Amino acid sequence: MSKKIDFVIEDLSLVRKHSPLVHNITNYVVMNNTANALLAVGASPIMAHALEEVEDMITISGVLVINIGTLSEPWVLAMEKAMKKAEILKKPIVLDPVGAGASKFRNDSLKRLLDSASPSIIRGNASEILATLSSSGKTKGVDATDSVESAIETGNKLSELTQGTVVISGATDYILNGSTTYKVLNGHPMMTKVTGLGCTATALNGAFAAIQKDYSRAAFSAMVVMGIAGEMAQKKSAGPGSFQMHFLDALYSVNENDIKSYYKEE
Amino acid sequence: MSKKIDFVIEDLSLVRKHSPLVHNITNYVVMNNTANALLAVGASPIMAHALEEVEDMITISGVLVINIGTLSEPWVLAMEKAMKKAEILKKPIVLDPVGAGASKFRNDSLKRLLDSASPSIIRGNASEILATLSSSGKTKGVDATDSVESAIETGNKLSELTQGTVVISGATDYILNGSTTYKVLNGHPMMTKVTGLGCTATALNGAFAAIQKDYSRAAFSAMVVMGIAGEMAQKKSAGPGSFQMHFLDALYSVNENDIKSYYKEE
Amino acid sequence: MSKKIDFVIEDLSLVRKHSPLVHNITNYVVMNNTANALLAVGASPIMAHALEEVEDMITISGVLVINIGTLSEPWVLAMEKAMKKAEILKKPIVLDPVGAGASKFRNDSLKRLLDSASPSIIRGNASEILATLSSSGKTKGVDATDSVESAIETGNKLSELTQGTVVISGATDYILNGSTTYKVLNGHPMMTKVTGLGCTATALNGAFAAIQKDYSRAAFSAMVVMGIAGEMAQKKSAGPGSFQMHFLDALYSVNENDIKSYYKEE
Questions:
Q1: Which is nearest to A219 in space by CA: A231, A245, A201, A243?
Q2: Nearest residue of A to residue C244, measured between CA atoms
Q3: Are residues C40 and B104, on separate chains, in Cβ contact within 8 Å?
Q4: Which residues make Cβ contacts (< 8 Å) with residue A251, sequence separation at least 6?
Q5: Separation of alpha carbons C151 and A196, rounded Å
Q6: Which of A71, A239, A245 faces B40 most closely, judged by CB atoms?
Q7: What tens-digit pLDDT sequence spans chain B (266 residues)?
Q8: Residue C245 in contact with partner chain B when CB distance is under 8 A
Q9: B237: distance to nearest CA of chain A, Å?
């Protein structure tokens, strides 16, 4: 068994031991799921978006999670303020560029966020990562082919730009930081049939980054736990409704034995 | 077996084949359910409400779904803008006048929305449909009795006004457009014990209108699928909690055989 | 069997008989859960927060429930307006000071709300109740120890200030009004692993206050029903996902026999 599986086991037990406060400024669609997933895995969620209180909230939290799913101007302002404060406080920042590329407003907002502070981790699917890199305004000639190689190249460019970790979600997840590349093979296609599981993955990245300063390792552990919980849930599910329920149960109950029996590596 | 059941089977398979993008500007309470129901039935939800991006979002989507459940002024402005753009782009617009009649603000907002563009489909319960017609400011002497006949008359008047389809939900659903009337007998009273299932019905109307240009037929197919999924769910449920879960599973799994075995007609 | 259990049985049957309209101005995270819990127990939820319509909504409702979980300035303004109107209309007001003490903005907002009208019931955990008392600006030397005695003293001070009922949630719930003290021993620790169950408790307090003018008794009945539903759910659950589902089913199905068999008293 590889050493990497020990990272997952150790990091999960740290989340449960320290129950880190995770400050989320996220979208309306997934707030409830995200909070429940964080509770289930052992962390403590805070949802707060008012300009007047985001600085107080990140101050008492271990990590800031920013998700642009249902953006509007007041929320962008709060995100900028919270990211600047998190950077000053040296707290990790995790960014989910939901729907990047789908509108000019979303791309412009992403640029503003990237100009506010450098995310420790950015997690998205391949097209969101590509659009985030383009939105940064600091790159030219982004290659838009659909190949895995192209996605990895894009992710590494974004990682170079932010000096942080980039997670590209998909059938296989890639965790990139310019030097190390982690692959995560766990997961199940049913996870794409439930809204907001990408957002949940991002929030879990936050919980793990709060207790593990090697952020690429934190992202790796989070994505493995996520994928294994998905596989455990799928075994008991008759569709996306029951999947959601079993997924939360699995995040809550997943233990060392489960990780050892489900973990996949090439 | 009537021809109408074939509409349902064909339209459901078209939703699953084309997986239409459904742009929702909807209420906070139901965003998560709505997105999950759309995913479960085979469509692709977009939730976006910022004035700055609604035009971009409807441009890439197949249909616009407007729901006034938790209205405030910035959202009304975004709804007006999105509806105008959808009309220019000749995309269908589906409107859910949640709580019409409950406040002056809601009625005034409905008038503004109806003045922005004509919905292809309006779906509500009988009192919401009545209040929508009154709110339009283009009718007098609306009859407020509780009879089915009165509800149908109101629905047909609203249909005449919008030149679109009107769906009146209830124990029996009526789909009206001035000429054809469809009745839907499927469904279960437990559906009124789960928040937002009316909103889910509206969103499904949107998914079906994106793939079926005969909007009354699209509404009919959507309401039958909704009702059958409700009956399938109820069989396995011990209350509204488990009903919700089984309902999503049923939307995901409902197939031609289920439709044939559950479909009811007078 | 004590008389108090009869309060619970009678009040629950009144909620189901009258299905009171409960006007909630609450947070984004829990809106869906709260609405579903109110429907499951037999009440009728309204979620509406626009400044333009909160007065209309409380006018048609039996009770106002205010929850500060995801506060921002426009929502505080609407809460103030709704509370003033509720006081004029002599409708009960139930306040949930979620996260009180976590930010200056939250504390300042609480002071504004307490200055707008006196809540009939305030429900929070011990630290929220303490922070609410401090925020009122009308107390000095609040004792911040963690003892139960200290929490009760704080609750009674807050009750004296508002001339209302104060519910302190915890392993044991305390319902205080300066003279009577009710204790609720029902409940299960799994309830802390699901987001928003405190908010659900507050909303149930609202439903019961709408049909029971003795607000301390109403709070007691609501908290017992809540706790018993939690215990019933836990018996069938494998984690927080399935717990949520069974909890809604239990709120829907809990009956006199369940209450008699689960109710605990010292």
A1: A201
A2: A245
A3: no
A4: A37, A40, A41, A225, A229, C239
A5: 39
A6: A239
A7: 579 999 999 999 999 999 999 999 999 999 999 999 999 999 999 999 999 999 999 999 999 999 999 999 999 999 999 999 999 999 999 999 999 999 999 999 999 999 999 999 999 999 999 999 999 987 655 555 578 888 899 999 999 999 999 999 999 999 999 999 999 999 999 999 999 999 999 999 999 999 999 999 999 999 999 999 999 999 999 999 999 999 999 999 999 999 999 999 98
A8: yes
A9: 12
d(CA C30, CA C28): 6
C184 CB neighbour count, 10 Å cutoff: 27
Specify the pTM: 0.96
Contact A252 C242 (CB under 8 A): no
DSSP state of C189: G
Domains of chain A: 3-262 (3.40.1190.20)
- Based on C-alpha coordinates, what's the Rg of chain B? 17
Q: What is the C-alpha separation between A219 and A166, in angstroms, rounded? A: 9
Cβ separation C50–B32 shorter than 8 A: no
Residue B31 neighbours by CB under 8 Å, 6+ apart: A28, A29, A70, B24, B47
Q: Are A206 and A250 in contact (CB under 8 A)?
A: no
Which tokens go with B196?
């937002």
Strand B121-125 to strand B93-96: parallel, antiparallel, or no bridges (unpaired)?
Answer: parallel
List b or e across A153-167, with b for residues whose CB sees 16 or more CB atoms inside 10 angstroms: ebbbbbbbbbebbbb
- Amino acid in position B71: L
Nearby residues of B227 by Cβ (< 8 Å), 6 or more positions away:
B173, B184, B185, B186, B187, B188
ipTM of the complex: 0.95
Residue B261 has which token pair? 């075995």
> Hey, is B17 helix, strand or coil?
helix
